[in-house]
Every structure is written in structure tokens, then in C-alpha cells.
């Protein structure tokens, strides 16, 4: 049930960036290999946004496919299932994409302030 | 509760603590001045591109933990498994087996109780207990606080015994330098296939309770093949903390990574 904590992370991130805005829509991108279940995030969203400036916001989730590169044959393939296997039969691969889990954009009512720059990366 | 910014009680202090325009520690709602907000003024809605990783904050704090540990010359290991796979028993045995060679302290993560911390302390290690309440995993913020309390000496090893769970802890970087996953033979050989995210992250997989192999149906070859396919770089070591079989290989792995003690 880490989707509960993760959905709280969505609210926290949006609230930090746009503390004064009334959010009407949140757009997420969830990769097929991210380990996050989109339906669970949907389930938690209303619960977690209650009483915040995201309350009542629409949730849109784009589920993106995974992409792997086979170390044996060098080819790229889209995994089918939790354990990626290359069509050549090899299970030795690197994940190219599909592990991302991010907030793509939000829609908000007018007013409020411009979002500050994201926090500086820790060196 | 303030209907617009949502501030109320401790939860909001947590949500807003990096938001400088509010002084949440002090303000009472009676005196909350809202003039500075622009609330629901007319106009059209706007879209703000964020392109931000949801776990960015945890990853940032984990990075800070990692820097802190490096500066202190401390090795941190994130020890993960399902409940009952033998994490605490492994640590008890390890504390005894490496006594006088490697200085080990432990951060214990459980939803409730301090039973494991009591066992670890009895084995001679310094230990800090984190109770996550309803939480199903440790995160970097909890570990940062635990590290401050634990105050591990330079040249030592900190083992973070995560909440017993093969799902959620896989997603949360704690700032550790190595991830060790335990898989007990009594759980069955199908766990890597069922919980691929956990095993994909592992640097070392310890197959525990091997003394029980004669009594259970555990296909070690299939298990090893599935672990290798998920994490080609992971090392697999079978052991029994009860009989001591295989413990030497685990000690060697740990000794190789342990930082040199201060002169």
C-alpha cells in the first residue's frame, strides 16, 4: 500500500511548488516498470487531497510502456510482464525507460504566485 | 482548517515546511492573514508544467544521507525481506560472528513494538527503533533522524533493517550504499518472479534458512536463475544463521565493504 505514501508525495510536491494555487487537475506519468499501480493511486487520490488545495482536482494518469535493451543481442524490446525477456531468449538487459513516476503538469485556477524553481540538487 | 491552503495541525507543518511565506509553527487561525493570497480571482485556468519526479524529495534526502555517511566514513546497508525471513536472527548471529572485527549498529524499522531492537541490543549492538505506525516502509527522512540519534562512529557499519515487506521498501532510497535482500527457503522459490522490483534492486541476495531445505520444496536453481535475470549483477549467497553454514561468505562480503576503522 505504498501508493498511499506516494500519493501523499504528489500532494506534497504540488503544494510546495504552488502553495497558493487552487489545483483543478493533476497529470501524472506512471511507467510500466515503476512499481506503482495507477489504480491504487486513483483510489488514494481523493482521500489524500481532502482539505488541501488539490481537493476536488481531476486526476489524469498516462501509463507509459517500458523499454529495455538486451545485453546479449543488442536489440531493444518492450517487456511483456514483470520479468522482461528479450525475443532472442536472453534475460540479461538494461531498463531504458518505464521506471519513471512523475508529475507532468497541473492545471490551476488563476491567481496565486508563479512556481518557484525546483529545489537545488544535493551535490 | 484554512479552506484554501489547508493548513491545520501537524500534518500541515509537514506539508508546508519548505514554504517560506507561511509561518506554520506559530500562526493561529484566528490571526491568519489571507491578504497575501490571491484567492479564486476571475480569469482562465492555466497549466503549469512541473515534470517533477514524485519521489524527488525522498531521493534528495537520501542523497543527503549518503553524503553524510560518506563524510563520516560509515557504510550503510538496507536489509529487506518479507516478514519472518530471518533479518533479525541474521543480525544477531552477525553481531556475534564479527565482534571485535567490524563495528555494527542497527536501525530497526517496524510498524509497532521494539521486540527486534531488544534482541539486537542483547546481541551487543547499538540500536535505534523506528516505528512507522501505519507506514509500510522506511523513508529517507526517518533514516536521517535515526542516523542523528544513532550517531555511528567513523569506520563502522550501519544496518538498516527495513519493515518486513517485499513491495514498498523497494521504491524508497534511504541513502544506503548497498541493498541486501533476504529470501528464506520456507517462502518458496517464486518470490523473485512475484516481487520483481525488490529483487531488481538487490546488490546481494541471501538465501536464508538453508538448514530447512530437506523439509521444504524449494527449487534453488530456478530461484537463482530468476534472481540473475532480474539483477544480473547481484551476488547470491545461501546460508543458515541457525547452523552457521554459509555465514563465512556473508562475513567476507561485509568485511570487504566495511570502511577502514580510524587510526
In words, what does this structure look like?
The complex is a heterodimer of chains A (123) and B (263). In chain A, the strands form two sheets. Chain A has a three-stranded mixed beta sheet with strand order 2-1-6, with helices on one face. Chain A has a three-stranded antiparallel beta sheet with strand order 4-3-5, with no helix packed on it. Chain A has a domain at 2-66 and 98-108: hypothetical protein PF0899 fold (2-Layer Sandwich). Chain A has 123 residues and is of the alpha+beta class. In chain A, helix 1 (2-17) packs across helix 2. Chain A is built from two helices and six strands. The longest helix of chain A has 16 residues, at 2-17. Chain A starts with a helix and ends in a 15-residue tail after the last strand. The model of chain A has no long low-confidence stretch (mean pLDDT 86). Chain B is of the alpha/beta class. Chain B folds into two domains: 1-46, no CATH class; 56-257, Rossmann fold (3-Layer(aba) Sandwich), CATH 3.40.50.300. Chain B is 33% helix and 18% strand. Chain B has helices spanning 9-16, 56-72, 87-97, 115-122, 140-150, 191-194, 196-200, 220-230, 247-257; strands spanning 46-53, 75-80, 104-110, 126-131, 157-161, 178-184, 204-208, 235-238. Chain B has a seven-stranded parallel beta sheet, sandwiched between helices. Chain B is globular and about 75 Å long. The relative contact order of chain B is 0.15. At the A-B interface, helix 1 and strand 6 of A face helix 1, strand 1, helix 2 and helix 8 of B. Strand 6 (101-108) of chain A pairs antiparallel with strand 1 (46-53) of chain B, so a sheet runs across the interface.
Amino acid at each position: 500500500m505504498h501508493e498511499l505514501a506516494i500519493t501523499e508525495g504528489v500532494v506534497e510536491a504540488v503544494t510546495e511548488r504552488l502553495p497558493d494555487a487552487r489545483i483543478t487537475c493533476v497529470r501524472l506519468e506512471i511507467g510500466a516498470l515503476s512499481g506503482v499501480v495507477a489504480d491504487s493511486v486513483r483510489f488514494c487520490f481523493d482521500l489524500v487531497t481532502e482539505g488541501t488545495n488539490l481537493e476536488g482536482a481531476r486526476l489524469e494518469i498516462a501509463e507509459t510502456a517500458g523499454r529495455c535493451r538486451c545485453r546479449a543481442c543488442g536489440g531493444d524490446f518492450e517487456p511483456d510482464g514483470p520479468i522482461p525477456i528479450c525475443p532472442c531468449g536472453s534475460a540479461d538487459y538494461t531498463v531504458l525507460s518505464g521506471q519513471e513516476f512523475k508529475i507532468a503538469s497541473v492545471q490551476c485556477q488563476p491567481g496565486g504566485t508563479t512556481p518557484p524553481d525546483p529545489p537545488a540538487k544535493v551535490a | 482548517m484554512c479552506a484554501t491552503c489547508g493548513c491545520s495541525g501537524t500534518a500541515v507543518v509537514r506539508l508546508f515546511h519548505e514554504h517560506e511565506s507561511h509561518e506554520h509553527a506559530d500562526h493561529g487561525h484566528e490571526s491568519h492573514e489571507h491578504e497575501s493570497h490571491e484567492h479564486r480571482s476571475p480569469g482562465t485556468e492555466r497549466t503549469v508544467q512541473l515534470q517533477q519526479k514524485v519521489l524527488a524529495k525522498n531521493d534528495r534526502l537520501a542523497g543527503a544521507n549518503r553524503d553524510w555517511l560518506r563524510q563520516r566514513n560509515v557504510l550503510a546497508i538496507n536489509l529487506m525481506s518479507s516478514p519472518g525471513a530471518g533479518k533479525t536472527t541474521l543480525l544477531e548471529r552477525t553481531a556475534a560472528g564479527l565482534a571485535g572485527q567490524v563495528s555494527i549498529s542497527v536501525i530497526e524499522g517496524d510498524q509497532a513494538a521494539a521486540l527486534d531492537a531488544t534482541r539486537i541490543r542483547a546481541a551487543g549492538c547499538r540500536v535505534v527503533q523506528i516505528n512507522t505506525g501505519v507506514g509500510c516502509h522506511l523513508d529517507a527522512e526517518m533514516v536521517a533522524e535515526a542516523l542523528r540519534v544513532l550517531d555511528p562512529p567513523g569506520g563502522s557499519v550501519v544496518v538498516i533493517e527495513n519493515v518486513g515487506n517485499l513491495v514498498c521498501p523497494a521504491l524508497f532510497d534511504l541513502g544506503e550504499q548497498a541493498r541486501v535482500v533476504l529470501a528464506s527457503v520456507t517462502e518458496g522459490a517464486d518470490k523473485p518472479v512475484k516481487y520483481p522490483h525488490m529483487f531488481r534492486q538487490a546488490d546481494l541476495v541471501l538465501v536464508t534458512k538453508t538448514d530447512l531445505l530437506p523439509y521444504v520444496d524449494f527449487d534453488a536453481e530456478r530461484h537463482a536463475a530468476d534472481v540473475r535475470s532480474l539483477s544480473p549483477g547481484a551476488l547470491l549467497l545461501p546460508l543458515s544463521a541457525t547452523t552457521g553454514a554459509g555465514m563465512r561468505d556473508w562475513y567476507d562480503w561485509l568485511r570487504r565493504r566495511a570502511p577502514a576503522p580510524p587510526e
